[in-house]
Design a protein that fits this description.
With 368 residues, this protein is of the alpha/beta class. It is 30% helix and 18% strand. It is built from ten helices and 16 strands. The strands form four sheets. The chain has a six-stranded mixed β-sheet with strand order 5-6-7-8-15-16. The longest helix is centred in the middle third of the chain and has 17 residues. The two termini are 17 Å apart.
Amino acid sequence: MLIDGKSSKIPLNAQTIVTHAHSDHYAFMYSNPRTRATQETIDLFFCQKKPAGPITFLPTQFNEEIVFDPEIPDLDVRLVSSGHVLGSASVSINYNDKVILFTSDIGGRGQLTIKEPITKIDADILVIEATFGSPELVFPSREEISMEILKWSADVIKEKRNVVFSAGKLGSAQELIKMFNNLTNLRVVTHGDVTPVSDVYQKHGIQLEYFDSKSEEGREILRDGEAIIIQPREKKIVPYFIKEHINYRSAIVTGMASRFIYKDYDAAFPLSSHANYPELIEYIKEVSPELIFTMYGLEEKLAKAITNELEIPAIPLRKKEEESQQKTPKKPKIQKQIEKKIPITTIENKLLNKDAKKKTTLDDYFTD
């Protein structure tokens, strides 16, 4: 069983799971028709990518039992809500009375466009994301961030300008649309890459009101001005669809605004579809695992913080994988040590001792 792999080159008979429709997680969906995912994730994948040929995936509901091998009757695999974006899932694996929970990306509190709240289950082993896994990465509450966004937008509108937000086209963009729909009368215009994703949200019961930038209504709103415009973060600062309407101010919406300064924007807001550090710690406490592996982001910082703060053994998964793959040190490092006139025998002894140490991998915790 493979979950959220980075490569689409896998055996045709492999059993795969994709947890959600962000591009760094759905590589399996390019080539393996046996991939399992929620229907929302499947729809979101197809609205972003057009595979060369027909592909049929296996839609799976939350808490539905997944049968991979009938000859292993004690294996119970299920998807549970991760509260990250529409249809996003964590994977629960129960085997021989041991529960392994793979979180994938998990969401924080207070999101407006999540149908199913995050599900936390008791687990013996937890594999948890670490996107914002450092103790200093604490966001204000979503209510506070929302009020800051609305206040800044109101000030821009008072100047008779358009407001341009650069946000993740899946997740943050829909949160912004919903926020402005719920709390203002301002009209929202969406970039052509944001519109189809938002359409899938609508299809699955998340009510949003927006106008595509290329539609007749969208163009009219842009001509009138005083609109909220939402485009993907990877697009240029001046969107192609408002080049003739350059009277605007721009802001970026990303959790990374808590870590970095964005000089190319007039404002930055740390609104994210990821849990921040305190929410990760709260999640771990409720799951109450005996062992934790960290991955996706600040793995080492989160593992160290968990060990110190919660006194639960935590291991950065990527570091262990790299150690197991690297049997000998890189040549430049040895040469550098020789240049410092360290005796070659000392270097050889250190390398031998290092290679003699047992490499801990996730497989060690799956044996009976």
